[in-house]
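Notes to self after the call with IL:
- keep both proteins in one doc
- input above output, always
- annotate only the second one for now

Protein 1:
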Amino acid sequence: MEHPKAQEGPLTTLPSNRLRVVFWGTYDLGKPRTRIMLRALRETDVDLVECHTDIWAGVEDKAQSGGRSIAVGILRSIAAYPSLIWRYLRLPQHDVVVVGYLGHLDVLFLWLFARLRQTPIVWDAFLSLHDTVVADRALIGRWNPVAWLLWAWDWLAAHAADLVLMDTQTHSEWFRATFGLRPGRVASVFVGAEIDIFKPLARRPAASPDEPIRILFYGQFIPLHGIETIIAAAARSDPARYAWTLIGTGQEAPRIQRLLDERPVSNLQWIEWVPYANLRERITNADICLGIFGRSAKASRVIPNKVFQILASARPLVTRDSPAIRELIGSDTLAVRLVAAGDPDELLAAIEMLAREARNAQRLVPSAAICNQIGYAAIGQKLYSQLASLASRRERS
């Protein structure tokens, strides 16, 4: 799917009480997180300018793309910084500069120049490199020298920013404690959903009352997703009653293929790739959609993109219970069923409960209280609050 390129231009003359924000760096426009933040800020009463060089086009999964691709990305970043810094220094005065995801290197290069301009830095960290590569995906061992380098990189980047943003409060608290940041130095903003893309549509009707319940999972096939739990639940389900679809590929794909080769599941279909623009139709035509079921500590701290997209599309959801997901849904679980991590029996039981009313669209629509937290307006309001508070503190100091 093509994404509009960032536009850079001068900050216009505006009333002094209007927040002036620069979004700076090599941030990844291929990630919904970045696009949603930018769109949310544009729809908020701020004066926004982007100062951007795109180095990540075509690289979707950085942790899985290999050392060579990561090295190329770092070299591209370093090559881009002279121009980015020069352009930044020529921009008019502003209240805050935001470093978007993936900005672990960006924030270090920007630090000196933002200090010279007496402008606070907000870094949308979104994740810890060390936690993702070492703990969650287990791509290298914890005693590997690269693991220590990643931890030090996270620490330096976190301390270079005046405010670090994560996706949930649970994740924020972990990040602050892990990297020794003072209270108030880390905040959270939900990922949200691109609600102009993911929105309720008329569904394809069942061909007959006997047509199987359609169950959908999509994602990058990483350990956090717990796809083996989905396969185990599918294997225990009634093939005549349930039709399961997996969409995606990634780190776990070879292991998942071995599982299916050893024990084929007749009512499970695996599609490696679907264009981003077509996901909405897939979600809409599913009776039940699936979130994540991994057992890792990170899986308990985050809410992935797919959860917000499914809720924005007004589809019933089953996902693992965690402190993070409770931040979004509270106790409102009519259309969102929470299950224990890594438990295929509990997953199947939740699906069977939803299946009794899966085609009753009125009863299984996520509540307004949930949906009102995930659109551009809600994300923009939360982000604006964080930026304005930081800018206000700078003025008082």
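Protein 2 (the one to annotate):
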Amino acid sequence: MLKWPLQLFDIRRRFFRNLKNPERILEIGCGSGYNVKALHLLYPDAKITGLDLFDVSPLPAYAIYEKVDLDLGRLPFPTGHFDAVVITHVLEHLQRPLELAPEITRVLRKGGLVYCETPNWTSLFVPSFGFKRLQQGPLNFYDDPTHLKPWSVQGLFNYVHQSCGIKVVRAGVVRNIPKLLFDPFILLSGLILGRRPYILSVVWNVVGWAIFAIGRKE
């Protein structure tokens, strides 16, 4: 019941809502399509493309899927093709994230927006414990064996500003302040009901587990 009102204060959802009738959106590292589905609800007429390493498309039929090895650096799209690029929890998995940076800029149109999100370096110090251990979702950065390198806010700022060459309009820690009021109850519910995602959402919010940077191509 609280999920939708609290999303009003979620920085990623706010970025999605503030896009101005985009025609084409790219998500780099789309995973199972969580962001793609959220974007489609807001912009049902937009062409949304997702990239990942899956052999079979994980996306709904309304989205376009491309299998791409992001460590190779090359994106299979024309220059200036997208109004917005979203890349969340991907950079920390890449061996060569700097090679991807100029491609993010190239495929983004002038005036287009990019949203980057990664784990915060402070996630290295979050305790890892075995509550519902087999369920997906890391507490400590290294709970995910494919994680290579955490980022700082300044590092992510420099990635967008220097490596991508895109003007950063905002950067900081991902934290939903109003949700902090409800986090003790969400945590208790997670422990009682055995819901690891509830616990993850509280821990991520309280400790500022993730960071973000928003940029505009000039």
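Annotation: The chain is about 30% helix and 20% strand. The beta strands are 24-28, 47-52, 64-67, 82-88, 108-119, 167-174, 210-216.
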